[in-house]
Amino acid sequence: MTRFEFFDHTADVGLVAHGSDLKEAYANAAYGMFSLIADLEEVQQDIQRDIDIQALDLESLVVDWLNELLYIFDVEHILFSRFEIIALDKNQLRAKAYGEKIDTSRHRLKTEVKAATYHSLKVEKENGFKIQVILDI
Amino acid sequence: MSAGLQKTLVKIDDYRWEIPRTYKPGMRVPGLVFSDEQMIRHIQDEQSLEQVANVAFLPGIVSRSLAMPDIHWGYGFPIGGVAATRVDDGVISPGGVGFDINCGVRLLRTDLTENEVKPGISKLLADLFINVPSGLGSEGKIKLKGNQIDKLLLKGAAWAVTAGYGEAEDLEFTEEHGCLEGADPDKVSVKAKTRGSPQSGTLGSGNHFLEVQVVDEIYDARTAQAFGIAEKGQILVLIHTGSRGFGHQVCDDYLKTMGAAVRNYGIELPDRQLACAPVKSPEGQSYLAAMACAANYAWANRQCITHWTRESFSRVLGKSPRELGMRIVYDVAHNIAKIERHQVEGKKLTVCVHRKGATRAFSAGHPDVPKAYRKVGQPVLIPGDMGRYSYVAVGTDKAMEETFGSTCHGAGRVMSRSAAKKSISGADIAADLAAKGIAFQVASMASLAEEAPAVYKDVAEVIHITDAAGISPKVIKARPIGVIKG
């Protein structure tokens, strides 16, 4: 199964993430987003952050999950390259994200992602699960 | 675009297209798109017209849901969208402002000519590139501790001037004097402040840039003269940036608040990204106070960058900024919501004007236009794309009547970023810029490809429409000779 793919949106980037279960789809959405920010092959996983968020529904959880990761990236300059969803229901997501601090001598930084948006946002059951989200860049 | 919309789009004249209210049940007003035959065909390929119709659902919207000719598919609002809602019983929507609150442009004029600057342009760019922090994950030189950021949020550009970045006169030539009223740092989350503090005074990445430009064409000498632009070959500097992670966090925080508000107030919307609350509700008032903080953050940001730009010019050219005549022409926001008074159907009304990728364009005589420009109107700054050119235009009475004193904000994209990356490489663009004699300093070659000229509409076509439609006639055209991009 393809972990994620991008679809065309004129100003921004559309991201579709797949997973055999919901947890995997959320993890792949995060991986897809960070693969826009940097080449993740070079990123070590020696720092870990715990994430615990509550939201109104599964769709809002996608936006909050991705935006929380962007917040940590912005504040702590951590590039994340592995995501482990510990618990997930329709109002809550708990996860561990692994990565390392930006080192411009080794990391190739690409695109600034401003935020995940609610426009055309979807969480669907389709060959497992599928998440669609548009990122403002 | 849906086939339905194609059929219902009504051509009013060569530059105006209406989306009738009947297009979609729930539209409170019609849509109006400024475009021409050729461009409207392209716009039809994407969802942006559907978004114009969606904005017309907002409670309290008056007149029309407007789209400027640089319209393209956004999230919630189209980019290039303008909507005014009644303050008394209408709503405010953070999606009508966007994540980069008070993303905007500032233009500096100089007494320098191309001949004086071009030979040393590489040295000048190298100095600017070091002096103005840019790029993904970059931090600024301004170290704000604890709640020091609150003063910046309250005072905006004036905070920067007090801290030694620039001069009091700069404020006169900044929209709102660089400080939007009603800012309340207590309405801003700790997260936004944590995110914003280290990024204060940075250009950022994405489509943000700093350009050294040359006046290439003067269309209206009297107005240009009033703006301090006298002749072809004169050097200008254009700064394009916004409120960085601070604004993104404010928007994100309040989209959550508004998501709940939509349920509480029973507001029905066709797109979640349009989430909103009544302007006068606690949620609406809190957002306006937080948005003003982000707007002020952005004005302080552009003010600091102005100061470093003057420093670099001064150092490299060996003259003081005063001797170089480095004054601000103007500074405009193009992602913002403002409480303004406008004539609506024969009555003066207080409205909340959302400008999402649109620029204020007030006419001559308006009290919010700087005194020095009051006889000609407000300067409108319209950056084009990196390799091409930018325009300065001017606000008109027609804009006051038809668009709540608003016009376009730039070229508008035509190619998605992924398509750009597939077809164009950073190296191609570098070669192209070099061939055109444009010097550049970039933080990332990948980001260079994303902003390639080919991904944008030709800004000349956009400005032709705003000029011909009478909402912002062009005053001058400038072309870049040096580009700094994060």
Count all strands of chain A and give the number.
8
The main pleated sheet of chain B reads as: 8 strands, mixed
Model regions low in confidence, pLDDT < 50 over at least 5 residues of chain B? none
Given helix and strand content, the structural type of chain A is alpha+beta
Total helix count of chain A?
2
Predict the CATH topology of chain B.
Answer: tRNA-splicing ligase RtcB
Number of strands of chain B: 19
Q: Spell out the CATH superfamily of chain B.
A: tRNA-splicing ligase RtcB
The assembly state of the depicted protein chains is: heterodimer
Distance between the termini of chain A: 27 Å
Question: Overall 3D geometry of chain B?
Answer: globular
- Return Rg of chain B in Å: 21 Å
Shape of chain A: globular
Class from secondary-structure proportions of chain B? alpha+beta
Helical residue percent band of chain A: 25-40%
Q: Which fold name corresponds to the CATH topology of chain A?
A: Archease, Possible Chaperone, Chain: A, domain 1
Major sheet summary line of chain A: 5 strands, antiparallel
How much beta of chain B, percentage-wise?
15-25%
Return the CATH architecture of chain B.
Alpha-Beta Complex
Total number of domains of chain A: 1
Structure description:
The complex is a heterodimer of chains A (137) and B (486). Chain A is α+β, with helices and mostly antiparallel strands. Chain A is built from 2 helices and 8 strands; from the N terminus they run ββαβαβββββ. Chain A has one domain: Archease, Possible Chaperone, Chain: A, domain 1, CATH 3.55.10.10. The longest helix of chain A is centred in the middle third of the chain and has 19 residues, at 58-76. With 486 residues, chain B is an alpha+beta fold. Chain B has one domain (3-485): tRNA-splicing ligase RtcB (Alpha-Beta Complex), CATH 3.90.1860. In chain B, 35% of the residues lie in helices and 25% in strands. Chain B has helices at residues 3-8, 37-43, 48-55, 114-117, 121-131, 148-155, 157-162, 168-172, 190-196, 221-226, 244-264, 282-317, 321-324, 397-402, 417-423, 426-435, 445-450, 459-468, and strands at residues 10-13, 16-19, 31-34, 65-75, 77-86, 91-92, 104-113, 209-218, 234-241, 277-278, 327-333, 335-344, 347-356, 359-360, 379-382, 390-394, 406-407, 439-442, 474-485. In chain B, the strands form 4 sheets. In chain B, strands 7, 8, 9, 11, 15, 16, 18 and 19 form an 8-stranded mixed β-sheet that branches. The longest helix of chain B is centred in the middle third of the chain and has 36 residues, at 282-317. Chain B starts with a helix and ends with a strand. The model of chain B has no long low-confidence stretch (mean pLDDT 93). Chains A and B meet through α2 of A and β4, α9, α11, α15 and α17 of B.
